[in-house]
Design brief:
The chain has helices at 20-41, 52-58, 61-77, 91-101, 104-117, 164-167, 171-178, 184-192; strands spanning 122-128, 134-140, 151-157. The mean pLDDT is 98. The protein contains eight helices and three strands. 48% of the residues lie in helices and 11% in strands. A three-stranded antiparallel sheet has the order 2-1-3, sandwiched between helices. With 193 residues, the chain is mainly α. It has two domains: 20-78, Orthogonal Bundle (Helix Hairpins), CATH 1.10.287.990; 91-192, minor pseudopilin epsh fold (3-Layer(bab) Sandwich). It starts with 19 loop residues before the first helix and ends with a helix. It is globular. Helix 1 packs antiparallel against helix 3, helix 2 packs across helix 3 (61-77) and helix 4 (91-101) crosses helix 8 (184-192). A hairpin with a 5-residue loop joins strand 1 (122-128) and strand 2 (134-140). The structure holds manganese (II) ion. Manganese (II) ion binds next to helix 1.
């Protein structure tokens, strides 16, 4: 049985970038529903014993959608921390971003464009390949880079439930503020795994 993860921050700790109300809904309702759905779908599916990432790589339909959304949201929530106006990458990931994109600002511009222009519901991803090269991806719906043999490092959720309570239709404003919340120690840890 899958369990709803605990958040690494208090519900109001991401304010004013993300409200406590949004976190309560996003974690306590949306993610909890995906966890319940997957637990209902798994018995008899043949996927019961697989780790979540393997389910996402192999499953289709409802099992893929719910397992994907659990994996995506776990990576999303576990990379966030209280707002910092001068937030910047650290460690190996900082070096890799400078080398491959020229600067953090150039990377931010590219990633922001991917998040803002993604049509409909989905996820913008920073991922790395086996050589440590970085990739920015747009994945629709429950998509995750693991299905392309890439390692997920950082993600912005652009489903409307992630921002509609706080920003209504203003997705670009939400994305611009999200940079204050990224826990770059955690992104660097994932990159070095
Ligand atoms: Mn979401």
């Amino acid at each position: 049985m899958y369990q709803l993860i605990d958040l690494p921050f208090r519900e109001n700790e991401l304010e004013p970038v993300i409200s406590a109300e949004t976190i309560a809904l996003h974690h306590g309702k949306h993610l909890a529903t995906y966890v319940n759905n997957l637990n209902n779908l798994l018995p008899g599916s043949g996927f019961e014993e697989l780790p979540l990432e393997e389910i996402v790589k192999k499953a289709t339909g409802g099992i893929f959608n719910n397992a994907g959304q659990i994996l995506n949201h776990n990576l999303y929530f576990e990379q966030l921390q209280a707002p910092n106006d001068d937030n910047r990458p650290v460690g190996e990931i900082a070096k890799a971003i400078d080398e491959q994109f020229g600067s953090f600002d150039a990377f931010k511009e590219k990633f922001t464009a991917a998040a803002v222009t993604l049509f409909g519901s989905g996820w913008a991803w920073l991922a790395s390949d086996v050589d440590g090269k970085l990739h920015i991806l747009q994945e629709p719906n429950a998509g995750n880079p693991v299905t392309k043999e890439l390692k997920p490092l950082m993600t912005f959720d652009v489903w409307e439930h992630a921002y509609y309570v706080d920003y209504r239709n203003r997705r670009p404003e939400h994305i611009a503020a999200m940079w204050k919340l990224v826990n770059w120690q955690e992104i660097d840890r994932r990159y070095k795994l």
